[in-house]
Every structure is written in structure tokens, then in C-alpha cells.
Amino acid sequence: MGRSDLSLAEAIAEQVHPALPEDPAVFAERLQLFPSGCLLLAGDSVCSGYAIAHPWRLSRPPPLNTILGQLPDGADTFFLHDLALLPAARGAGYAGIAVRLLAQRARAMGLDAMSLVAAGTSHAFWRHIGFRPLELDGVADAAVATYGASARAMVWRF
Ligand SMILES: CC(C)(COP(=O)(O)OP(=O)(O)OC[C@H]1O[C@@H](n2cnc3c(N)ncnc32)[C@H](O)[C@@H]1OP(=O)(O)O)[C@@H](O)C(=O)NCCC(=O)NCCS
């Protein structure tokens, strides 16, 4: 993903996550802070998905729609902020490919875990990939709740 692709990613997010909106500044900041964690699924004439991840602290998932400011020292997870495909692009293996690619990048940085907040009905997908529920403290639970009532923190330890 490059800066000129940000509006494409935002348009996909509007379609896929209408109940969990995030400001354009959030997308732009993630790309600026950690460009190699931002992927776009681009075909010949259409973009149909994106993934955004960055190093972070396992115990402190960022609340939804939050500007981070900077990446932390001593990151211990690759936080998968979002993975979203338009319906027409689902079921073809692209999401699995994106997660494996991001996991490779995490390992190359010396990180031994990926984590995320599973929103909506995505828990089963994440479990299939290898993620498991992550127990957190009350402060973190409040951050997780900003992703919706059914949201759950999950971790995949490599
Ligand atoms: C979640 C999402 C990215 C999955 O995309 P997808 O195209 O269906 O996934 P893939 O085709 O790459 O599937 C990868 C693997 O997961 C499995 N899988 C897909 N959906 C699954 C589900 N709901 N439950 C269990 N396994 C699932 C596939 O069978 C495949 O398994 P395999 O590698 O063993 O063959 C997509 O459905 C989506 O964008 N949903 C809306 C946004 C969303 O919920 N994002 C997550 C926010 S936290």
C-alpha cells in the first residue's frame, strides 16, 4: 500500500465495516508509522482488500479509531489492526496469504506473536488461522470493547 492507495482502502473499509468507522487520519498514520505492515489486494482494475499491521504491545490493544502517535519501544507483538476483503474477493485464499505474509514479516523482526481484536463474526476465521483468545486486564478490555460488543482479543504465538 502506498499513500495514493489510502482512499481505496478507506472505501473498502466503509463497505466492509460500516458499523466500525475509522477516520482517514488513522489509515494514513498506520501507513506512515509502518508501511511494510500495510498491504493492498490489487487486481488489474480493482482493489478488493487490505491488511494493516504494526509492532505493538500485546497487553495494550489500541482502541478503535485511535491515533497512535508513535510505535512503542519493546514491542512484543505484530498487531493486526484490520484485514478486510470485499465480498467478491472472499473464499479464494487471499486472507490466508496476507496473514502468512505478515507473520513472516513479524518473525523477521524478531517478534514471536501476532495479535488482534476479532470483530463481528470473524473469531472462527482467526481460530482456524491459529489465533487463540487472549486474557487481558480491565484497561485493555475497555479498548477491546470499542470494536463492538462481540469483539475479543486474540493472539497467535509462533
Ligand atoms: C475474515 C476475512 C478476511 C476472511 O477472508 P476469506 O477470503 O474468507 O479467507 P480465505 O479464503 O483466505 O481463507 C483462509 C482460510 O480460512 C478459512 N476460513 C475462512 N473463513 C472462515 C470462517 N468463518 N471460519 C473458519 N475458517 C474460515 C478458509 O477455509 C481457509 O482455510 P484453509 O487455508 O485451511 O484452506 C473476510 O471474510 C472478511 O473480509 N470479512 C469481513 C471483515 C472482517 O471481519 N475482518 C476481520 C476483522 S477482525
Explain the overall architecture:
By secondary structure, the protein is of the alpha+beta class. It has one domain (3-157): Gcn5-related N-acetyltransferase (GNAT) (Aminopeptidase). Helices cover 32% and strands 24% of the residues. The chain is built from five helices and six strands. It has helices at residues 6-16, 24-33, 94-108, 123-129, 138-145; strands at 38-42, 47-56, 77-85, 113-118, 132-133, 152-157. The chain has a six-stranded mixed β-sheet with strand order 1-2-3-4-6-5, sandwiched between helices. The longest helix has 15 residues, at 94-108. The radius of gyration is 14 Å and the shape is globular. The mean pLDDT is 97. Bound molecules: coenzyme A. The site of coenzyme A has 20 residues, from strand 3, helix 3, strand 4 and helix 4.
- Tell me the β content: 15-25%
CATH class equals Alpha Beta
The largest β sheet comes out as: 6 strands, mixed
The unreliable regions are: none
**DSSP summary, beta strand count:** 6
Using only C-alpha atoms, the radius of gyration works out to 14 Å
Look at the structure and name the CATH superfamily.
Gcn5-related N-acetyltransferase (GNAT)
The hetero compounds bound to this protein are: coenzyme A
Count of separate DSSP helical elements: 5
Task: Please trace the helix and strand order, writing H or E for each element.
Answer: HHEEEHEHEHE
User: Which strand order does the major sheet show?
Assistant: 1-2-3-4-6-5
Tell the overall outline: globular
CATH architecture classification: 3-Layer(aba) Sandwich
- The helix content, as a percent range, equals 25-40%
Number of domains: 1
Question: Mean pLDDT, as a whole number?
Answer: 97
Q: Structural class, from helix and strand content? A: alpha+beta
The termini sit apart by 25 Å
Query: Might you state the CATH topology name?
Result: Aminopeptidase
